[in-house]
Each structure stands twice: as structure tokens, then as C-alpha cells.
Amino acid sequence: MTLPDNIAPGDYLIRHEIIALHLATSLGGAEFYPSCTQVRIGGSGTGTPNGTVSFPGAYSDNDPGIFDPTVSS
Q1: Which end of the chain, N or C, is less packed with Cβ atoms under 10 Å?
Q2: Cα separation, 53 vs 55, whole angstroms
């Protein structure tokens, strides 16, 4: 992954997640496997990350790609 060149120095938490959909034919069936990496950025940039989310609440069972009642198990 490439971070923006102008990101402000500081401590950041990068969250990567695998979503297992083999049971996603019923609400609540998707399985989430999160993993986090702490990084410390140096330098003199002033930029801020975009595309950030908060947990809980970043997504729900009804979001596209999480629940699909048409897929057979």
C-alpha cells in the first residue's frame, strides 16, 4: 500500500479486513476478520487521510456485498 506523500506526521492505525461470505445468505451470516497495523509517520507533511470510517457503524449487514439472499450455500 502506498501512503500519500504529504500525510501529516503522527501515529496511525490502518485496518484491513477479510469478510467471509460463505454464510452471507442470511442476515448476520457474514464473518469479519479484522487486522490492524500501527504505523508512525515522520516528516513535515500537513495532509490528512481521507476515506476514514468509525467502528462500530462503518457498514451493516444490509450493505451491498455483505448480504446476498440469492446466493446458495
Answers
A1: N
A2: 7
- If we measure between CA atoms, which residue out of 68, 56, 72 comes closest to residue 30? 68
Alpha-carbon gap, residue 19 to 30, rounded angstroms: 7
Residue-wise pLDDT for 13-33, tens only, equals 888 889 888 888 888 888 989
What is the amino acid identity at position 25? Answer: T
Query: 22 near 58, Cβ under 8 Å?
Result: no
State the cell numbers at 30: 457474514
User: Distance (Å, rounded) from C-alpha 44 to C-alpha 8?
Assistant: 6
Q: How many CA within 13 A on the CB side of residue 18?
A: 4
Name the pTM for this structure.
Answer: 0.59
